[in-house]
């Protein structure tokens, strides 16, 4: 296993920028807001790089120029009101430039009006329960068998041989492309958190409290996430899979699942 | 600022130590004071989705220009032996008018049980505007063995509900109060 | 002049020298002894907590479970954090305060020597209790150092012991803080005005006030957990009308100032060291003081930025986002002032200076990721991922811990009377700096790519960076043995002069090296104090 990852490590270094896109940075995601979040992230990142270049640049120049071994006589200045005013005021302006777009995105994120679908998500130690509000569909979603078999200590199964190790569930959440999906998130026991990076949604599931959030996926595909609030021993084993499908496929899916009538007593 | 230290450390130190100890004790108290402060804060802002709001009057000025969808979500905590659901999943309401909704709960055991329903409202900006006039969540509910019971809720949605809210979700979590203090996980 | 003082003190020592054997250490009320005890204790805890970190990193070296079970893994992350925060970083700074503050302000000892003894000896008891939970039924606490209910209430027999040990740590810190405040306010040498105090003393004064303000709040919060569990209250139990989120608010009301408790003294240390080795006065001494006070104040109104995903109203999220971003301003002032101190100085690069410079570089990187985390919509993506782990380790390891290392090398000759082995010190520095980056830098990528924190196992796509981080952690752990070796051989080097370095400022350099058991029995003359700062 070590050899395998060492090889893939070398591979990554070799491939460099090609594979860097997924490995090094936040995903751009598949919703309007995930893209906005990504842009915010990159904007602040580049501001930091810029400030870093100036500050570290000055420091590095100083480290090389102003050393005793070069026979520099130390200056004696110990303050400069002008400089101090500038480096107090300038950051305030930069911060405003960051804060305003962030606030705009924040406001959009909170606007959960006019949903097309509402799904109630209830977290359990250690699985998720999804209930579609307007359809007669409700089911638990837990770690897929392949991962369950491979996960114990000394299972003898190489995780690299398991497809989507620890990121696959038995029944995914299925939603149609382009629909506004409102999520109502709560918990039955301890605090959990529902996160899918590509949807840029992370919301805590708190017992006794219902939280609301939403997303509108603009691409079809399978998007994976995990529980992100420590919730006990199997915290690392409650993945989330969201399948975004074409609206027709969604309707077909709803039909077959309503016939199954998978309702669970605990949710009623 | 420019106090030169000609003082005798002894007495001075004792009184300063006393004051600092008092400050520490006061901050311990402040930790506890945060509890009621938090409740007040929640009441005002709807923080945490708490809805302890009880309406004073039973009728406010209805605002017929708006229609709000109220959805009901029911949760049973930690596999407690209850069946609990809303009789209907949602309803359309006019702000300012009074409405009734019924929930049904059933004790699945052969013993007497006490339950407590805990309400929560989403989105948070709506929770201060969802007013309950009568609710089974105000008190503990006693159930005989296998008893099934309908439980009423009487509510008004405040006409001052913010413009950007068109759907309110009311959630009840059903707790078995006997289990609350029991620590049976290991 | 100095020699005369030294002789007088030597004579004095013959009468009131330290006791012999363990009684010296158990009953000591001498600030130098207690400082040493704190520093040794913190070093031991650093290694215990570090071993736990290595357990974590070994398990995470490759996907699949190899060494431990998930429950034990969670215990390790929880205990690692508690031990490093309350056992390693905080006691190390208290130890430095004990050793240096009386000597920096010209006081004979701490103001409350007996309380000083107590506040130290409570610590081994507290951590003895905490470590004993590893052997209890149900295992050590595994709910995270943040102790969020209801999860923490699922802890086994260890639960009341966890709470009790947190109480003891709190009492110890509060007593230590009171002592430091009283010493600074009442025992300064004549003519040492508040604003003339060295920056290290200043940052500790502010830190001590923070401690008194927030440690009791933590004590209150954990007491509520205790009564919720055993005495039927429902502070955080939804069933009884409580609210689990309220714990998070109270905890972070303590927790965020706590972050600054661990970094402000580090700012102080670095602000002492950089001027010495730049041979130039600290740039903007007063604005450094104002910036530290400003950071301390802001730390009380930003706590909910740890909670952007719990479901706060929009107005709350916006407020906490703006307030958090504001912290970048005074922090920026500090960094700019350090750079301005170096600018046109005449620098040399002894080990303490190297650690201080690495502090400025790497703490600033941690500050940048902190700024990114302040942006609420982006924080929704970063929250509880390895990005956060990378962020707080950057401010705590090459931040606080590097500052502690720098302080140790800086004042070691004053403590022992001998120069430490400079080449080994430099070796320790370079190994630590390289490995700390190898360990923590890849964690940024892991977090952005979607790896949550506190998980014992992960999907195969995260394998490469985890492997790198684990190798780095192992390297960092081994490099610290160099530090231990340097400490053990600290007395073998050349005899140190009283000033030790070429151009240090401050009263501690006016006493002999090693500093005699009792210093400044009579307050230093104003003129000496003046000279020390000219």
Report on this structure.
The complex is a heterotrimer of chains A (268), B (186) and C (534). Chain A contains 6 helices and 10 strands, in the order ααααβββαβββββββα. Chain A is α+β, with helices and mostly antiparallel strands and 268 residues long. In chain A, helix 3 packs antiparallel against helix 4 (81-109). The radius of gyration of chain A is 25 Å and the shape is elongated. Residues 9-22 and 262-268 of chain A have low confidence and may be disordered. By secondary structure, chain B is α+β, with helices and mostly antiparallel strands. Chain B is 25% helix and 36% strand. Chain B contains 3 helices and 9 strands. Chain B has helices at residues 9-45, 124-127, 177-181, and strands spanning 68-76, 82-86, 90-93, 98-107, 113-122, 130-135, 141-143, 148-157, 167-176. In chain B, the strands form 2 sheets. A 5-stranded mixed sheet of chain B has the order 3-1-9-5-7. A 4-stranded antiparallel sheet of chain B has the order 2-4-8-6, with no helix packed on it. Chain C has 534 residues and is mostly helical. Helices cover 69% and strands 0% of the residues of chain C. Chain C contains 17 helices and no strands. The longest helix of chain C is centred in the first third of the chain and has 36 residues, at 70-105. Chain C is globular, with a radius of gyration of 23 Å. The two termini of chain C are 17 Å apart. Chains in contact: A-B, A-C, B-C.
């Amino acid at each position: 296993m070590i050899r395998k990852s060492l090889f893939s490590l070398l591979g990554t270094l070799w491939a460099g920028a090609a594979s860097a896109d997924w490995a090094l940075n936040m995903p751009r995601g598949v919703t309007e807001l995930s893209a906005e979040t990504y842009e915010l992230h990159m904007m602040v990142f580049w501001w930091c790089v810029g400030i870093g270049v100036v500050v570290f640049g000055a420091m590095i120049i100083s480290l090389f120029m102003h050393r005793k071994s070069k026979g520099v006589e130390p200056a004696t200045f110990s303050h400069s009101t002008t400089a101090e005013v500038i480096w107090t005021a300038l950051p305030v302006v930069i911060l405003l430039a960051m804060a305003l777009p962030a606030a705009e995105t924040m406001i959009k994120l909170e606007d959960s009006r006019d949903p097309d679908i509402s799904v109630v998500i209830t977290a359990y130690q250690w699985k998720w329960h999804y209930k579609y509000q307007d359809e007669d569909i409700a089911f638990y979603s837990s770690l897929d068998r392949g991962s369950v078999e491979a996960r114990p200590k000394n299972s003898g199964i190489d995780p690299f041989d398991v497809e989507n190790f620890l990121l696959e569930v038995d029944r995914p959440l299925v939603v149609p492309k382009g629909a506004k999906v409102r999520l109502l998130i709560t918990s039955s026991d301890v605090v959990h958190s529902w996160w899918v990076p590509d949807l840029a949604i992370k919301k805590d599931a708190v017992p006794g409290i219902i939280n609301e959030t939403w997303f509108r996926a603009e691409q079809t595909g399978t998007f994976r996430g995990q529980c992100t609030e420590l919730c006990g021993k199997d915290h690392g084993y409650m993945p989330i899979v969201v399948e975004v499908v074409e609206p027709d496929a969604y309707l077909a899916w709803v039909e077959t699942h309503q016939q199954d009538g998978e309702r669970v007593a605990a949710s009623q | 600022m420019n106090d030169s230290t000609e003082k005798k450390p002894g007495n001075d130190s004792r009184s300063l130590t006393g004051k600092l100890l008092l400050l520490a004790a006061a901050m311990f108290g402040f930790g506890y004071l945060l509890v009621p402060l938090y409740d007040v804060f929640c009441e005002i802002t709807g923080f945490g989705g708490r809805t302890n709001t009880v309406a004073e009057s039973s009728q406010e000025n209805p605002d017929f220009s708006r229609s709000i969808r109220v959805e009901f979500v029911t949760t049973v905590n930690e596999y407690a032996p209850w069946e609990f659901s809303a009789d209907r999943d949602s309803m359309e309401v006019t702000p300012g008018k009074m409405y009734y909704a019924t929930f049904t709960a059933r004790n699945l055991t052969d013993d007497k049980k006490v339950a407590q329903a805990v309400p929560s409202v989403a989105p948070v900006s709506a929770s201060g505007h969802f007013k309950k006039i009568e609710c089974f969540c105000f008190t503990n509910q006693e159930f005989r063995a296998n008893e099934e019971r309908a439980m009423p809720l009487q509510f008004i949605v405040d006409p001052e509900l913010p413009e950007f809210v068109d759907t309110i979700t009311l959630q009840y979590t059903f707790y078995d109060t006997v289990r609350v203090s029991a620590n049976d996980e290991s | 002049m100095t020699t005369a003082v030294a002789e007088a003190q030597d004579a004095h020592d013959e009468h009131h020298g330290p006791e012999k054997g363990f009684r010296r250490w158990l009953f000591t009320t001498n600030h130098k002894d207690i400082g040493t005890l704190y520093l040794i204790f913190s070093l031991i805890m650093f290694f215990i907590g570090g071993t736990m970190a290595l357990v974590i990193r070994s398990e995470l070296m490759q996907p699949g479970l190899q060494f431990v079970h998930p429950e034990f893994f969670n215990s390790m992350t929880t205990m690692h954090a508690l031990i490093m925060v309350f056992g390693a970083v905080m006691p190390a700074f208290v130890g430095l305060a004990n050793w240096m503050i009386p000597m920096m302000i010209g006081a004979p000892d701490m103001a409350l020597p007996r309380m000083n003894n107590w506040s130290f000896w409570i610590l081994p008891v507290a951590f003895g209790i905490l470590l004993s939970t590893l052997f209890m039924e149900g295992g050590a606490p595994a709910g995270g150092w943040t102790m969020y209910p209801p999860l923490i209430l699922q802890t086994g027999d260890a639960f009341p012991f966890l709470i009790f040990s947190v109480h003891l740590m709190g009492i110890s810190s509060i007593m230590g803080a009171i002592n430091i405040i009283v010493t600074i306010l009442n025992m300064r040498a004549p003519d040492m005005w508040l604003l003339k105090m060295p920056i290290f003393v200043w940052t500790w004064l502010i830190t001590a006030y923070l401690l008194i303000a927030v440690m009791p709040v933590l004590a209150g919060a954990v007491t509520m957990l205790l009564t919720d569990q055993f005495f039927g209250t429902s502070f955080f139990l939804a069933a009884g009308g409580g609210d689990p989120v309220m714990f998070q608010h109270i905890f972070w009301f303590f927790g965020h100032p706590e972050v600054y408790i661990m970094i402000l003294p580090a700012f102080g240390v670095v602000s002492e060291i950089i001027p010495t080795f730049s041979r130039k006065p600290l740039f903007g001494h007063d604005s450094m003081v104002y910036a530290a006070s400003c950071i301390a104040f802001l730390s009380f109104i930003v706590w909910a930025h740890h909670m952007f995903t719990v479901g706060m109203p929009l107005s709350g999220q916006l407020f906490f986002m703006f307030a958090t971003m504001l912290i970048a301003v005074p922090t920026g002032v500090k960094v700019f002032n350090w750079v301005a101190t170096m600018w046109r100085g005449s620098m040399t690069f002894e080990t303490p200076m190297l650690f201080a410079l690495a502090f400025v570089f790497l703490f600033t990187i941690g500050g940048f990721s902190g700024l990114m985390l302040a942006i609420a919509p982006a924080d929704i993506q970063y929250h509880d991922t390895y990005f956060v782990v990378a962020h707080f380790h950057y401010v705590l390891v090459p931040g606080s811990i590097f500052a502690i290392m720098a302080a140790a090398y800086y004042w070691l000759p004053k403590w022992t009377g001998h120069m430490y082995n400079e080449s080994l010190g430099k070796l320790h520095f370079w190994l630590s700096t390289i490995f700390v980056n190898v360990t923590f830098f890849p964690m940024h990528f892991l977090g952005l790519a979607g790896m949550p924190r506190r998980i014992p196992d992960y999907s195969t796509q995260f394998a490469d960076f985890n492997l790198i981080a684990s190798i780095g952690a192992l390297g960092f752990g081994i490099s610290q043995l160099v530090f231990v070796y340097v400490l053990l051989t600290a007395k073998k080097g050349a005899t140190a002069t009283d000033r030790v370095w070429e151009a240090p400022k401050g009263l501690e350099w006016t006493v002999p090296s090693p500093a005699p058991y009792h210093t400044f029995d009579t307050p230093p003359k104003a003129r000496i104090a003046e000279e020390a700062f000219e």
